[in-house]
Amino acid sequence: VVEDDGYLVSFIIDEVRGTSECILIDAQDFAAGPVCRIALPHKISSGTHAHWADRRVLRAAA
Fold it and tell me: Which of 16, 38, 42, 62 has the most CB atoms around it within 10 Å of its CB?
């Protein structure tokens, strides 16, 4: 495994627009910015914590 091999996952919250998104940044190239942006269907709070959800749970909720 190469040092810094992976992705940073973070949430972006726009309080003015009332929107949120999840971004992924390549840990080896922060300067390039996000490699992926996922618009979330609802605004999340700034104190939101995350937990692992199996893909079966996510598919069932979709």
Answer: 38
Q: Is residue 38 part of a domain?
A: yes
The model's pLDDT over 11-49, given as tens digits with 9 standing for 90+, comes to: 999 999 999 999 999 999 999 999 999 999 989 887 777
SS3 category, 51 = coil
For residue 4, the enclosing domain spans 1-46
Predicted TM-score (pTM) of this structure: 0.67
Measuring CA to CA, how many Å separate 25 from each of 16, 60, 61? 24, 27, 26
Domain count, the chain: 1
Q: For residue 52, is it within any domain?
A: no
The dihedral formed by the CA atoms of 59, 57, 34 and 19, expressed in degrees to the nearest 10: 90
| Token pair listed for 41 | 């269907």
